[in-house]
Amino acid sequence: MLAINFIRDNKDIVQAGAKKKRVEIDIEMLITLDDERLKVLKEVEDLRAEVNRVSNDIARDQDPALKVQLIEEMSAVKEDIKAKEEKLKAIVDEWQKMMLKIPNIPSVDTPEGPDESGNQVVRSWGEKPQFSFTPKEHYELGKALGIIDTETAGEVSGSRFAYLKGDLVLMQFGLIQMCLEILTNNDTLKKIAEESSISVVPSAFIPVIPPVFIRPLVQLKMARYMTPEEHYLFPNDDLMLIGSAEHTLGSMHMNKIFEERDLPIRYAGYSTAFRREAGAAGKDTNGILRQHQFDKLEMEVFSLPENSVQEQNFLVAIQEHVLKSLGLPYQVVAVCTGDMGFPDSRQLDIETWMPGQNKYRETHSADSMGGFQARRLNTRVRRSDGKIEHVHTNDATVVAIGRTLIAIIENYQQADGSIKIPEVLRKYMGGKEYIK
RNA sequence: GGAAACGUGGCGGAGUGGUCUAACGCACUUGUCUUGAAAACAAGAGUGCCGCAAGGCACCGUGAGUUCGAAUCUCACCGUUUCCGCCA
User: Where in chain A is the domain with CATH 1.10.287.40?
Assistant: First the structure.
């Protein structure tokens, strides 16, 4: 959500930003509605002030006759207030609906474009592996090795589910363990920041296992509630499943005020992510690229507003550090206006090389929301001079298990169909060198 | 699942219908004193919205209701704690 006063003062910028994001909004109608809201609000408050004043008079010494008269008068005013309050409520309801539909404004360095075709590669790293044979896709290799079973999962749970088995499971937990070691080590983080010339306070991440259910109301405040079709909903319990740990990490501090000295706060949340994938019918149906359920380690940072862009760069640097450690070729992509998320002001994705598919596929995302989410969630910071403002939020993937496993399987495949295990993961897998 | 108690400002904690709509303590800010600090003393300070301002309105878990007037009474919901039951 943007602040209404900001919208009123910058309606051209807001309108242009929405247009770039391909979101239809009607600023003029919102401002007309806001005028009406302020007018009726003033009327209601003036009437309440009168009631408050006279009620105190009634409580003070008064002769009984006057008391009765005043009470009668206030009864009438009360009716008036009730009618005006109902009017105000109707206006505010409509006003809120419109406010929630206004997207965050893209940053100035966000490329403009209609859809993912407008995304721009910022930089790339790594040599694509050369094979003396035709590289296979992950699901062929995984099936043959007995470490990915989508057929049984299909019978038991339906499409877009899988059984991960054996060494692949050990690899998942190795990946998570490796990443948690990076994220909780101040020296490592400091080094990553320095190597990328990023000036942030490189304090350690607090590991979190968050709830995977969230109240729909909170999801709405996170600006992550899209349409009902896109989520797993549990109406009996008024709950829904999260699509990312971000959803229950970012909302941890709603209605709270941080002290300036406590920021930044960094969390590393591990959870299963649930995605209904409505509208993706027929897309990426093989293997584990696009699943209804996958595990993910996610970073979430609450920071001072002036630091949030650097924080995002820092998160991307961490993502790159992880991929470099794994020896996976990747490219960093600036996501364009038409493809970026509704609450994002700046979004950077990382696409990792997948030899079986012979293309880069999205494995990571880093979203910078500015104060957009914080305003909806009412998460604020008290500056050292006492002033209170909204914090800025950033979230970013560390490892999304399915896709990272795919990248490893395909990049490290051998002629005999075995998978060489990246060196950094071997210590978590009993020293093994190959999955075969 | 059963029973009970309770949800007040950063924290603790008064306040059971009114006449300053939140006492008091801790923590906090500033000042005095001090070489500096601590202590002591003094002053200040909740959050949001409207307003140029003066000022006004709202907020005591959330939402409805009763009343001229609600932190206080009624109802529903949410949450926390304790005991019992079940259980990874």
Answer: 4-100
DSSP string, A77-106: HHHHHHHHHHHHHHHHHHHHHHHHTPPPPP
Is the ipTM above a cut-off of 0.85?
A: no
Domain with CATH 3.30.930.10 in chain A: 116-435
Write out which nucleotides of chain B lie closer than 7 A to a protein Cβ: 10, 18-19, 21, 47-51, 56-58, 68-69
Q: Decide if pLDDT at A324 tops 90.
A: yes
Q: Distance (Å) from CA A280 to C1' B34?
A: 73
Q: Which residue is nearest to nucleotide B21 (CA to C1')?
A: A52
Q: Which two tokens stand for residue A291?
A: 């699943």
pLDDT of residue A170: 96
CB A315 within 8 A of CB A349: no
Residue A369 has pLDDT above 90, yes or no: yes
Contact at 8 Å (CB) between A140 and A48? no
Superfamily, domain A4-100: Serine-tRNA synthetase, tRNA binding domain (1.10.287.40)
CATH number for the region A116-435 comes to 3.30.930.10
Q: For residue A61, what pLDDT band results from cuts at 50, 70 and 90? A: low
Query: Which residue stretches of A118-211 are H helix?
Result: 138-145, 150-156, 167-183, 186-195
Q: For A114-168, write each residue's pLDDT tens digit.
A: 999 999 999 999 999 999 999 999 999 999 999 999 999 999 999 999 999 999 9
